[in-house]
Write a structure and sequence with these properties.
15% strand; 13 strands; TIM Barrel; 12 helices; 341 residues; glycerol metabolism; 8-stranded parallel sheet; alpha/beta; 3-stranded mixed sheet
Length: 341
């Protein structure tokens, strides 16, 4: 038990990698329960997750809300609620026009009347049985779930919040950074040894947070494109040895899309590992890949089993391949399958 606690904390705060990568439950055990719900987080912890992940957007009254996106038409029952029909609108989020219902147009009290539903029913029809059962969570409620589970299990359960679209939220009068630093302080998550890792695809928020808090920070990196706040600085440039050295000045982790570590060929099969893990470790960064999912649609060709895109393939073997490639942690929708050692 003590060893498990020490291992989890060591990976979060910066000591060398261990044979078994840290398991970060991506929005909970979201392969088996609707994402970002209490049921998903509790199941993930039961399955041995070391860390649970909430995506954070904001309500109209400035509360951090646990949703995949600020558009909530696909993850709640808001479309079925006639009292909110007039809130449907079209907005431009990070350069894309999106139509739906947005958290920033609702107070926390209004959001709390909504109920979660499965975001990917075509892949996870079994999760639809849980639609309508759970309310939307706030960040402090997710932290409370982790703390209660830590006390109950004797394991340290960390939390890995992702700040979604901070440039957008700042532009509409809901700046995230001040509010988030205040939230960390209120929750007592302020030291370098706090069981928390803060993620973001944007660069500026992480740079500024690194000057205001000692908690570990993770730079998310996609296989294509650029950070919304640094469009002239591509993710490809950021993962060069020079880019990684610059990243290490403000971040503790790099969180690359998984194909940046195990690339795929034209037939969709994995090839030899890239140099990213070695280069990141040389720069002093730990590596967490995203996102391991069991469905064939998300697996490389050699790991697929059965004929259907929603059939489950060999995710456990894929997780083991990332462990062999030296990653320090994995984001996964299926924590039980990700335990590769």
């Amino acid at each position: 038990m003590i060893r498990a606690i020490v291992t989890a904390l060591a990976l979060l705060v910066g000591t060398p990698a261990v044979a078994q990568p840290l398991i970060i439950a991506h929005r909970g055990a979201s392969g088996e329960r609707p994402e970002h719900t209490r049921a998903a987080y509790q199941l993930a912890i039961e399955q041995g997750a070391d860390v649970i992940e909430p995506d954070l957007v904001m309500s109209r009254d400035g509360v951090f809300i646990d949703r995949h996106e600020n558009e909530i038409g696909g993850t709640t029952d808001v479309a079925d609620r006639p009292e909110f029909a007039d809130r449907k609108t079209t907005k431009t989020i990070d350069g894309a026009a999106i139509t739906g219902w947005f958290t920033e147009d609702f107070t926390l009290a209004e959001l709390k009347t909504l109920r979660a539903r499965e975001r990917l029913p075509e892949f996870r029809p079994g999760n639809v049985a849980y639609d309508g059962q759970e309310p939307i969570l706030t960040f402090d409620e997710v932290v409370a779930i982790a703390r209660e589970a830590s006390a109950r299990t004797g394991r340290t359960i960390g939390v890995a919040p992702e700040l979604k679209h901070p440039t957008y939220f700042a532009a509409i009068g809901l700046p995230m950074e001040d509010a988030f630093v205040g939230e960390l302080e209120r929750l007592g998550l302020t030291g370098a040894d706090a069981p928390v890792v803060v993620q973001c695809f944007e660069v500026g928020p992480l740079e500024r947070l690194s000057q205001r808090t000692d908690v570990p920070l993770a730079q998310l990196v996609s296989a294509a494109g650029a950070p919304e706040d640094r469009l002239s600085q591509t993710y490809a440039q950021m993962i060069t040895p020079e880019g990684l050295k610059a990243m290490a000045a403000y971040a503790d982790w790099i969180a690359p899309e998984m194909t940046l570590v195990l690339p795929r060929d034209a037939e969709g099969r994995t090839t030899a590992p890239s140099a990213l893990v070695t280069d990141a470790h040389a720069a002093g960064l730990k590596v967490v890949i995203w996102t391991l999912r069991a469905e064939n649609a998300f697996l490389p060709a050699e790991r697929r089993r059965g004929e259907g895109f929603a059939d489950h393939g060999d995710m456990a073997g894929y997780a083991a391949a990332f462990a062999d490639a030296g990653v320090d942690a994995v984001f996964t929708d299926f924590p039980a399958l990700a335990r590769s050692r």
